[in-house]
Amino acid sequence: MIAVSLCDVTIRYGDFEAVAHVSADFPAGAVGLLGRNGAGKTSILKALLGLVRPTSGTLTISGVPEGATAVELRRHVGYMPEKDCFVPGLNGFETVRLAAELSGLPGREAARRAHEVLWLCDLGEQRYREVSGYSAGMRQKVKLATALVHDPMTLFLDEPTNGLDPDGRREMLELVEGLASSLGKSVVLSSHILPDVERVCRDVVVIDRGRVVASGPVAELTRASIRVLDLETGPVDELETVLRGAGAIEVEPNARGGVAVTLPESIATRDVFRAVAAAGGEVRRLVERRRTLAEVFLGAVRADEAGAPPAEGTE
User: Is the per-residue pLDDT at 63 higher than 70?
Assistant: First the structure.
């Protein structure tokens, strides 16, 4: 199921082209929207929220009627902005209740929903304190609560871990992960913190200079183009000779005290097990080496800057 779809979207501010002919699908679940500052992420989010009108192209959000006005659209989606945006003097409960009422919920229902989402976001015991006195982590959580209070199926989160310490980041990511995995929400997570995206998101869309330079499942994008296995074995005389006899292209020591084995696609992992067993040893550990999301991101951006054709698995 596709939660959000962009088809040939261009966004201009005067003569400046912020987004150039972007086409991308965001599957249901948690999807990361990655890019450097100025890459076009915020412009895409604003267009999806109806705050900016694209110069050309179409944007579709699952569950939002075609031709919906900007006000109607925002009743179907939730938005957590990067920067603080609170009404001075309101406490946490009043802040979230106000967001619920602005989304169209009647007063009693708005209050009930405000209490529920504040407990969900671990702010139940702090809901009557003024937001101005909240810590950075609590302010991020109350922004998430305002995005959730009207129970939208699609959420747009802009840098949700911005300014948080390690514990705060962990708590926020656990909340976001639960929204997608347990509550069935579709989440578009815009961030420059790649480990956060890699932890929470199954799919990513990478934007650079207003264009999509990579997209797809994280598991596919981080798969190394050359198969390298980190291997630890029991005693085997002439291990390198044994592995090369099984078809290994290269065998060299790794940081764990074992060896890194580079295999061609024609050689299966089981052939390594068989070769080691035939030599009288045993495989104690074997892990296929993968690229990090940071390596995928940097590779896509550098290829874009160099004008090179996108790598396999990118657009």
Answer: yes
